[in-house]
Design goal:
It is built from eight helices and 13 strands. By secondary structure, the protein is α/β, with parallel strands linked by helices. A hairpin with a 2-residue loop joins β5 and β6. The protein is elongated. It has two domains: about 230 residues, 3-Layer(aba) Sandwich (Rossmann fold); about 40 residues, no CATH class.
Length: about 280
C-alpha cells in the first residue's frame, strides 16, 4: 500500500499467488479430471471410460472440471464515512487498493470486470468488459472516487436496472454505515436480480478498539454531528454494542445468502485477500 499508483499496486499485490482462484466447479468436458459417474441414457459416448468398463463391466462417464470466464462487478461505497482515517490510511484508500487488486485478478484470469461507485448524487456505472484498456479506465475511475456526502439514496437504485441482464459476481466494498436501511435495500435489489453477492465490510482498528484516551470529540462524517465522550468510561459498553452490531450485520447478510467478510484496514491487502479467497475455496 506504499505504492500510490493503483495499477502497479494491484499488479504487485496479485501477481504470483492467486492464479486460478475462481476456477469453476462446473462439471463437463474440461481438461482436469474431477470424478466418475454412472452412465445415463443420452450421455455423450465420447466421455465413456472404456477402461473402467473393462475392469468393472459397468458403464461410467468421465467428468472433468472446466475453466469458465465470469463477469465481476466491483461496488465501492464512496460516502463520506469512508473518509475515516486510522494511521496513514483512510477506508477509501484501502477500498481503492482492494478493488484494484480484485480487478487485476479478474483481468489476469480473462474475466470481464466492471464497476459501480455508490455516490450521494447517483451511481457511476462502468460496464463489465475485458481488456487492458478497459482495466485502465476502471483504475482511473477508482482513483477519482472520493468520499463525499451520504450513501446513495434508494431513488437512484433504479439506475442498476439500466445495466445488462447477465448475472454477475458482485463484490461490495463498504463500511456498512447507513442512516436507515438503504444499504440493505440495495442488497435486496441486487439479490432480486439473481446476482451472487459478496460484502467486504471495512472497519478501522481505532473503531474496533475505541483506541482514544480520556475525553474526546467524535464526529459523524456524513451528517457533521459531534458528540463528546469519555472513552475510558464507555469502552466496555462500546465493545459489547459493537460485537452485537457486527453479529447482527453478519446474520442479516447471511440470511440474504450474501457472502460476508469483515476486513480491518490495518491488515495488508494481500493477506486479507488470501484469507478471504481461501475461506471461499
Amino acid at each position: 500500500m506504499s505504492l500510490r499508483n493503483l495499477s502497479l499496486a494491484a499488479k504487485t499485490t496479485i501477481d504470483g499467488f492467486m492464479t486460478g482462484a475462481n476456477k469453476s466447479s462446473i462439471k463437463g468436458s474440461g481438461m482436469e479430471f474431477s470424478q466418475y459417474r454412472s452412465y445415463m441414457p443420452g450421455d455423450d459416448l465420447r466421455w465413456m471410460d472404456w477402461k473402467m468398463y473393462a475392469r468393472s463391466d459397468r458403464y461410467y462417464i468421465r467428468e472433468s472440471e472446466s475453466e469458465t470466464n465470469i463477469s465481476v462487478r466491483l461496488l465501492v461505497d464512496a460516502s463520506a464515512s469512508m473518509d475515516h482515517r486510522d494511521g496513514d490510511w483512510t477506508k477509501m484508500e484501502y477500498a481503492r487498493y482492494l478493488a484494484a487488486s480484485l480487478a487485476y485478478l479478474a483481468h489476469m484470469q480473462g474475466d470481464a470486470v466492471g464497476l459501480y461507485v455508490m455516490r450521494e448524487d447517483g451511481i457511476f456505472s462502468l460496464a463489465a468488459r475485458q481488456g487492458t484498456q478497459h482495466l485502465n479506465r476502471l483504475f482511473y475511475q477508482l482513483e477519482q472516487a472520493g468520499p463525499k456526502g451520504r450513501f446513495t439514496e434508494p431513488i437512484h437504485y433504479k439506475d442498476i436496472y439500466a445495466g445488462g441482464r447477465k448475472r454477475e459476481l458482485l463484490v461490495f466494498i463498504t463500511d456498512m454505515y447507513q442512516q436507515g436501511e438503504e444499504i440493505y435495500e440495495l442488497l435486496d435489489l441486487l439479490g432480486a436480480l439473481r446476482h451472487e453477492i459478496i460484502v467486504l465490510h471495512l472497519m478501522a482498528r481505532n473503531e474496533m478498539e475505541l483506541s482514544y484516551e480520556g475525553f474526546t470529540t467524535l464526529e459523524d462524517l456524513e451528517t457533521g454531528a459531534t458528540i463528546q465522550v469519555d472513552t475510558d468510561a464507555i469502552k466496555q459498553g462500546y465493545t459489547q454494542k459493537l460485537t452485537d452490531h457486527l453479529t447482527n450485520t453478519r446474520k442479516a447478510l447471511l440470511g440474504r445468502n450474501i457472502d460476508y467478510r469483515l476486513m480491518v484496514t490495518d491488515e495488508p491487502v494481500d493477506e486479507a485477500l488470501r484469507a478471504f479467497l481461501q475461506a471461499r475455496k
